Amino acid sequence: MNSDKDKNINKKDNYTYLNNSSSWLNTIKGYLFIIPSGLTLFIFIILPVFIAFYISLFQWDLLSEMKFVGLTNYFNLLSSPDFYNTLGNTLYFVSIKLFLDFVLSFFIAVLLNQKIRGLSFYRTLFFTPVVTSMVAVSVVWMWLYDPFYGLFNYILGLFNINPVGWLNNPDWAMFSIILVAVWKGLGYNIVIFLAGLQNIPKSFYEAAAIDGANARQKFRHITIPLLSPTIYFVLIIGIINCFKVFTPVHVMTPDGGPLKSTSVMVFRIYKLAFDKFYFGEASALSVILFLLILAITIFQKVYVEKKVHYYN
Amino acid sequence: MLIKRKYVLHIILLVLGVLMIVPFIWMISTSLKSYSEVYVYPPTLIPEELKLENFIRAWNAAPFARFFINSIFVTISITFGQVLTGILAGYAFARLNFKGKNYVFLLFLSTLMIPRQVILIPVYVIISKIGWVDTYQALIFPFIASAFSVFLLRQHFLSIPKELEEAAIIDGCSKLKFIFKILVPLSKPAIAAVTLFSFRAAWNQYLWPLIVINSEKMRTLQIGLRYFVSQGGGNSEWHYLMALSLIVMLPVLIVFLSSQKYFIRGIASTGLKY
């Protein structure tokens, strides 16, 4: 936009105004300001990425000498059925959670956008789970899922449906965890979608109405294209967050669920490193997870972002 | 016709909204029941007799007071650290002109693409090399800065007129004094958002304290609750577990309900600015 350009020019003028001392002094000053956060981020985020790559090439239990083994850890992982089970569980979690979350939050956000009364009341209802502790929430849902005395099986019983084993049943355990995650995360997406919807200029809809567009046409040709950046944001953040799932799995199924049906990637990394002390193999799995997330991010940046409609 | 449509809308939203708070209602209901009423069939929604002492009993079943203090201390330290380091770096990136600024800023942003879960092991190794395993330092220091806070504050500082700083400096105000006396009070919404985000994240931390804490006295509330569940302390004592869950949720819930505006605005803006 034009005004943005003007702002930039002004900024440059102002810099010469304020920074009349020599440039190396300014550089030192600048770095002094960013050192506290810069150092923390470097030591605890950037450096560890390289260390993870490094450790993944060794056999190591943290205490004894590190033994260089090249890519053996990766080969071991890729040839173990556990790895594919873990990967499968993770992908199942990602796809179902993302789908349910997306459809439900979009639907609710559109409903909330109809200029209804009590918007903030409803928003509070949907958003409260987002801020609560995942550990506490998981404990509450374990009680709801209790096969004998839980609320869910009681309600199913009212409709003459046979009780479900929920967390104890290999076919249901992962889905049970997904339900908790969807319930907890829904409000976050609703808030973002709602903000996106409210950001679409009213005049677009008025113009379309004058041209005789009906509600569905308006939705298809105005709402969806103008909301696409938001949709894109929700999807990318959603996928990445799903790959990181750990807490509900570990609290609700501390052993990885019946028949290892809830053992996801972060859970497996945790078990390999801190139960079995295979630090090398756990690091190799971390690196694989990292590359997976990175690949998805890059893929979306290159292929999806092009198709996204940015109107300003 | 239009009125009818509004009714339908409200009914759908109410049903969905009630479904969202069923787990909370059930938690509160169970937390107030006696042991025998927990297992009554059909289950009751409103307890026959309100057992408020459940909360005291559950609280004393493990050193939860200690866990609570640990959580409070760690959370406040992290939040304070993130706000302070975020203000300093955010100011530098928004207002100062120095060599390599744009590259360093990109490096900052790149840390947002690295999930903490992926660097769990190397961070643990670093912490154990420093000798910080099982200490408060280990719980606090890895989190006292976040690129997200820096970014959010920088964006806000950019929107504050430059002339203000010029005027202050002409009047003999130092940079630090300007930041804390003028810039910070003008940036309340952004600082509130950063505070709330880091408070929530720090309070709800689970995976990291699970790994880095060994002794019982260093546990945070989240870890304490989890051990209470897994050590059979609760397997059948759901009324105690629900009471504890409520206690663990409460601080963030109170903070959220009293400052919802900033919270929602902060989240909404992250989605729009992307």
Secondary-structure map with pairings?
The complex is a heterodimer of chains A (312) and B (274).
Chain A lengths: L1 H17 L4 H33 L2 E2 L7 E2 L3 H7 L2 H32 L6 H13 L2 H11 L6 H8 L14 H26 L3 H9 L4 H29 L3 H6 L12 H10 L4 H29 L5
Helix pairs in contact in A: 2-13, 3-13, 4-8, 4-10, 5-8, 8-10, 10-13, 12-13
Chain B lengths: L1 H30 L3 H4 L14 H8 L3 H32 L5 H10 L9 H11 L5 H5 L6 H12 L3 H9 L4 H12 L1 H16 L3 H6 L8 H13 L4 H21 L1 H14 L1
Helix pairs in contact in B: 1-14, 3-14, 4-8, 4-11, 4-13, 8-11, 11-15, 13-14
Question: How would you sum up this structure, described in words?
Answer:
- The complex is a heterodimer of chains A (312) and B (274).
- The radius of gyration of chain A is 25 Å and the shape is globular.
- The model of chain A is unreliable at 1-17 (pLDDT under 50).
- Chain A has helices at 2-18, 23-55, 72-78, 81-112, 119-131, 134-144, 151-158, 173-198, 202-210, 215-243, 247-252, 265-274, 279-307, and strands at residues 58-59, 67-68.
- Chain A folds into 2 domains: 2-55, no CATH class; 72-307, Orthogonal Bundle (MetI-like fold).
- By secondary structure, chain A is an all-alpha fold.
- Chain B has 274 residues and is mainly alpha-helical.
- Chain B has one domain (27-273): MetI-like fold.
- Helices cover 74% and strands 0% of the residues of chain B.
- Chain B has helices spanning 2-31, 35-38, 53-60, 64-95, 101-110, 120-130, 136-140, 147-158, 162-170, 175-186, 188-203, 207-212, 221-233, 238-258, 260-273.
- At the A-B interface, α1, α2, α4, α5 and α6 of A face α1, α4, α5, α6 and α9 of B.
